[in-house]
Write a structure and sequence with these properties.
The chain folds into two domains: about 100 residues, Multidrug-efflux Transporter Regulator, Chain: A, Domain 2, CATH 1.10.1660; about 120 residues, Multidrug-efflux Transporter Regulator, Chain: A, Domain 2 (Orthogonal Bundle), CATH 1.10.1660.10. The model has no long low-confidence stretch (mean pLDDT about 85). It has about 240 residues and is mostly helical. It is built from ten helices and four strands, in the order ααββαααααββααα. It has a two-stranded antiparallel ribbon.
Length: about 240
C-alpha cells in the first residue's frame, strides 16, 4: 500500500500518515529501492486502531498506547488503557453522586421568605445547619468550593441561597469520601450551570458523553485486538521484529 491508500480510508492527508509513522503511532514502513514507503495491512490496522483510540482516550493517551506497543511494551500500553477505564469508572461514580446530591437538594430546598428569597446565613448559621465547624467552611472556601459575599458593613461572610446549595452539595460529596479539589471542580460546573433545569441538562450531557466514551472504548478495543492478532498471525511484534 502507498501512504495515499491509508489516508484515503480516513479522509486524511498523506502527510498525516507519514507523521503518524514518524511519531511511532504506526510501525516502521519498509522502503522500495527508490526510497518510497511501502505499507501493509498491518499498517492499515495500526492506523484504524490509533484513530479509534483517539475517540476513546484522546490524542495524547492514544499516542502513548501506540508508541508503547511499537516500543515492545505491551504491558505499558495495557496499563495506560486500564487507567483510562478507571478514570471513566470514577467519572460515572461522581456523576451518580452528583445526581443523587442534586435530587437531595431539590427535596430539601430552602423555604423562601416573604420577599421570595431565602434568608442569607452567617458562617456560624451555615455551620450549624450542616453540623460542621466554621473552620471546615473556611477550608472549603480556600479550596474554591464556596465563594461567599461579604457584608459591606461588618466584613463578615454572608451565604446566600446558591452558597448554601453549594455547601450542602459539598457536604454530601465530602461524606462520600471525595477530595476537596474534586468537589471544587464539580461545584464550579454546577455554579456555571445555574438553575435546576440547566443543571439537569448539564448532567444529562455529561452522561451522554460518558456513554459515548464507553462505546468508543469498546470500538477501540476491537480494532486494537485485530491489530495485535494480525501481527501475531504474521509472526511479528508491534515494533516490527520477527517472532518466528
Amino acid at each position: 500500500m502507498r501512504p495515499s491508500d491509508l489516508a484515503r480510508e480516513h479522509g486524511l492527508s498523506t502527510q498525516a500518515v507519514r507523521n503518524y509513522e514518524r511519531k511511532g503511532f504506526l510501525p516502521p514502513a519498509e522502503r522500495t529501492p527508490s526510497g518510497y514507503r511501502v505499507y501493509t495491512e498491518a499498517h492499515a490496522a495500526a492506523l484504524r486502531a490509533y484513530l479509534s483510540l483517539v475517540g476513546a482516550y484522546g490524542h495524547a493517551v492514544s499516542g502513548q498506547i501506540m508508541t508503547a506497543l511499537h516500543g515492545g511494551d505491551l504491558d505499558g500500553a495495557l496499563t495506560t488503557i486500564d487507567r483510562g477505564h478507571g478514570q471513566v469508572l470514577r467519572d460515572r461514580e461522581t456523576l451518580d453522586a452528583v445526581r443523587g446530591a442534586v435530587d437531595h437538594l431539590m427535596a430539601e430546598a430552602t423555604t423562601p421568605d416573604e420577599s421570595g428569597d431565602p434568608e442569607p446565613l452567617t458562617i456560624g448559621g451555615l455551620a450549624h445547619r450542616l453540623r460542621v465547624t466554621p473552620a471546615t467552611l473556611r477550608n472549603w472556601e480556600e479550596a474554591g468550593i464556596l465563594v461567599p459575599a461579604r457584608d459591606p458593613a461588618t466584613g463578615y461572610r454572608v451565604f446566600h441561597a446558591d452558597d448554601v446549595r453549594d455547601a450542602e452539595f459539598a457536604h454530601l460529596l465530602r461524606r462520600g469520601g471525595y477530595p476537596l479539589e474534586h468537589i471544587a471542580t464539580v461545584v464550579r460546573q454546577i455554579r456555571t450551570a445555574g438553575d435546576t433545569d440547566r443543571l439537569s441538562r448539564a448532567l444529562e450531557d455529561w452522561r451522554r458523553r460518558l456513554t459515548a466514551q464507553g462505546l468508543a472504548m469498546l470500538d477501540s478495543a476491537t480494532h486494537l485486538s485485530r491489530y495485535l492478532r494480525l501481527l501475531d498471525r504474521d509472526g511479528r511484534t508491534a515494533d516490527g521484529r520477527a517472532t518466528r
